[in-house]
Amino acid sequence: VSQNSGKSKLNIFLISSILGGIWDTHYNATKKSHLKKKKLSNNFIHHILINAVAPFIFFYEREKMDRNGQIALNYLSAIPAEKNSIIQKWQSKGVYAKNALYTQGLLHLYKSYCSSKKCLRCNWGKKILAKNHEFN
C-alpha cells in the first residue's frame, strides 16, 4: 500500500467519523428522520478535505505556527485531482493536473484570468492562444 493510499484511507475514516453520524438520522440538518446508515462517497470526502480541511490547516499553519503552509500543500498533493467542468476545459487545452494541489491552482487561474477574459495576463493563456493561432 502506497503512502498516498494510506493517507486516503485515513482521510476517509476521519471524515466519515466526523460527519457520518448526524446524517444517519437526518436528510437535512434541521429535521430528524428514521435511522438509516449512509456511506459518504470518496468524492464527497475529497471535496470536504479540499475545500474545508486543507484551507483551515493552511490558515492555522500560517497564523498560529508561523510556518509557510507546507503541511496543507502536502495534504492537497495526496488527494487525487478533482473532476469538474473547469478542469475538463483545461484538459481539452492539454493542461493536466496530477493531484488536488494542481487542480486548485488551475481553478484559481480560471477564476482570476479565464472567466474575466484576461488571457494575455496569464502565461498559460498566452501559450494556449499562441498554440491555437498556429493551427488557424
List keywords for this structure.
extended
Can you describe this structure?
This protein is mainly alpha-helical and 136 residues long. The protein is built from 6 helices and 2 strands. The chain has a two-stranded antiparallel ribbon. Helix 1 (3-24) crosses helix 2 (42-64) and helix 2 packs antiparallel against helix 3. The termini are far apart.
Short description, anyone?
The chain has 136 residues and is mainly alpha-helical. It has six helices and two strands; from the N terminus they run αββααααα. The protein has helices at 3-24, 42-64, 70-77, 85-92, 100-114, 123-135; strands spanning 26-28, 31-32.
Secondary-structure blueprint:
Layout: H1 3-24, E1 26-28, E2 31-32, H2 42-64, H3 70-77, H4 85-92, H5 100-114, H6 123-135
Helix pairs in contact: 1-2, 2-3
